[in-house]
Design brief:
single chain, mainly alpha, two-stranded antiparallel sheet, globular, disordered N terminus
Amino acid sequence: MMALAMCCTTALAGGNATKSKKAKAFNWNPIMDAIIQVESEGNPNAVSGNSVGVMQITPILVKECNDILKKQKSKKQFTMNDRYSVAKSKEMFLLIQSYHNPMNSIEKAIRSWNGGMRYSVRATNKYYKKVMSKMK
């Protein structure tokens, strides 16, 4: 259950460093809840290789989030331990979506969570279907 081989560096970002108004209004909760069920069945202490927590967040994702925050001139920074927090994990997901997915594509959000920003549709099909089946 590799949560994210999200883009390895911010050079792959290609996103917008500012939060879009649309992203703030979009309700990501059903998607996050479905991802949590697929990734860890809701277990905040779940560990699979370098991926931990309910959303199976990798060290690469924590770094990516901190790089985005730095670009936004925020003093906030995430720690590796934040991956075990459900609330902080969701914050990281939302930050990634606001930066890399400003159009709020549910499909892009799910597939990139599994396969990184340069995901393959074919390689992420099983994961995408699994998450979609968990959506309420």
